[in-house]
Amino acid sequence: MECLVSLYVMLVVCGCLTGVTTVLFGFGGGFVVVPLLYQLLSQLNAADSAVGQSAMQIAVATSTCVMVFGALLATWRHQRAGTLDWSHIRPLLGVIGAGAVLGALAATAVHGEWLRWAFAAYLALTIVDCWLRPGFLSPAVASKAAPSLAATALSGLAIGWIAAFLGVGGSVMTVPLMRRRGIEMSRATAMANPLSLPVALAGTATYVALSATSTPSFGPWHVGVDVRAAAALVVGSWIGIRVAALWIGRIPDRIHAKVYLALLIVVFGAMVVR
């Protein structure tokens, strides 16, 4: 019993961290929740059990579910702070949702270990790209012309697919994208939250629907999502979002970008060390 209580206390604490990273960096929770739940599920269940074999899929699905709450509340906070530019957000919302359905379907068909390494590889590529390509760590450049409708649709589908496939929201793609359009870090990370919402809604619905026909069952508290873990994470996330909202718009641009990149490196390390 004590072990179980400690586990849920840990989830609430990590939920707080999720809330902070959601508001300040637009992560949507995935970069904290996925590595954490993957490690917990792998350690608490036998490797040959149903949950043990699908630990990564459950972690991704649970992360996507928690993201619904985090993205909604963080979007509301940023709207009140005036950091959202809806002209950049609206064209991407629908296509990101469509891509998220495809990504969730793909994630359920991939072996958990492959999904884990896909997550790590994508992080590595993103870290290298942000570090080496001009426009992310350097001060914001002049705004570029808006992309065509076709380019917007293709990028939205790709963002939705990858985000739901890995359970990370769209921040890892939308923040560098907005950054290179000349948008300051506080606004780029703010816009990642409403753009994560269609991923969260479409992905969660897909995972839950697929779990109804899955064999074998993961148990009474699993509907594709680990319900108990998701509840604890949401409670912590609410606390973290309230605290982090005080810092919206107060972090210097260059420091904001460097901390964002440093957090990606930390999460990468958590995923490759089992």
Task: Describe this protein with a few key phrases.
274 residues; mainly alpha
Question: Care to give the gist of this entry?
Answer:
The protein is about 75% helix and about 0% strand. By secondary structure, the protein is mainly α.
Description:
- This protein has 274 residues and is mainly α.
- It contains 11 helices and no strands.
- α4 crosses α9, α5 packs parallel to α9 and α7 crosses α9.
- The radius of gyration is 18 Å and the shape is globular.
- The mean pLDDT is 82.
Write the layout of secondary structure elements.
Layout: H1 2-25, H2 30-44, H3 50-53, H4 55-81, H5 86-108, H6 112-132, H7 149-166, H8 171-180, H9 185-211, H10 227-244, H11 253-272
Total number of beta strands: 0
Query: Beta-sheet strand percentage?
Result: under 5%
Secondary structure class reads: mainly alpha
Radius of gyration: 18 Å
User: Judging from the principal axes of the Cα atoms, what is the shape?
Assistant: globular
Helical fraction equals: over 70%
What is the CA-CA span between the terminal residues? 26 Å
Summed up, the helix count is 11
State mean pLDDT (0 to 100 scale).
82
Low-confidence stretches: none
SSE order? HHHHHHHHHHH
The biggest beta sheet is recorded as: none
